Amino acid sequence: MKKSFNLFLSIVILIITVLTTPTLVSAATHSSYTSQLTSSEKTVESKILKYIKKHPEKKSYTYTYKVKSSKANAVRKAMKKYFKLYARSMTALYLDYPEYYWLNNPVFNAKGLIIGNKGKVEVRVDFNNSISHNKKTVKAQKKLLNSAYKQIKKSNPKTSSEKITAINEWLCDNVKYNVNTAGFTGYGVLKNKSGVCDGISSAFKMLCKKFKIKCFKVRGYTDGQLHAWNIVKCSGKWLGVDSTWNLSTGRNLYLMQNKKEFNVNHKRMKEVGGYSYNGSILKFKDLKPPF
Fold first, then answer.
1. Splitting the chain (291 residues) into consecutive groups of 10 residues, what average pLDDT does each group show?
2. pTM of the complete model
3. Where are the domains of the chain?
4. Which has the closest alpha carbon to 93: 128, 130, 55, 46?
5. Could you give the CA distance from residue 94 to residue 133 in angstroms, rounded to a whole number?
6. Fold (topology level) of 135-268
């Protein structure tokens, strides 16, 4: 009887463990930053994405949430919650969609209001308006991207490896490293044929998307300096590409390196925010690339 009871107890414990242990998903299984968002964050991202596609000329986005309680403390908690919700959603949105270049470095503001026995929170996102963005620039960017895509296709790349190599070679042949304001965006790089790592890695990702290559834009450090690069999926493996460095160090030197090789001199920064909020620094759960 004791043996039967112990067996039954073991089965129960096993079932409870299986039901209550969360499924752990490694970053390598994610195909994007967006796929790492919670359902609430994905809803926010979807709303903003729909809004900017329809209104690329808009300078900001505002949304209001109702708060069940009218108590000041409840409204303050809701303000912090939605501030963090938008910050993480917008980070994933910009990294996954660099074509919407004006989403880089947005300014967030959460305002709480109590009217009678009701509370509400108004969240406002001010886009990066230091760079022109409207229907005309979006159309021009699309034209430049399609032109680059057609030029790359002339080499007739068929496999993922050939496509990634062709994209990198096109950037090496057509782009020069140059510090200028427009060069911080993929659009600026495609338009001026010059730029810095932020813009070059954005242009690389945009071109990968045209060729249906899974690609991450990664921000981090090399030799203690801020830098940006890409990680692509090729033949089932995630590999590092640094087209910015390839411009000057040899076009294939940092092309499709494995994690061990690439991480020798590339250290990613954690995408945890770090926004100033009510006198403190607000961070969120890290958005991870494959490595």
1. 35 28 42 96 97 97 94 95 96 97 94 91 95 95 98 98 98 92 89 96 98 98 96 97 93 95 97 91 96 97
2. 0.87
3. 27-132, 135-268
4. 46
5. 14
6. C8orf32 fold (3.10.620)
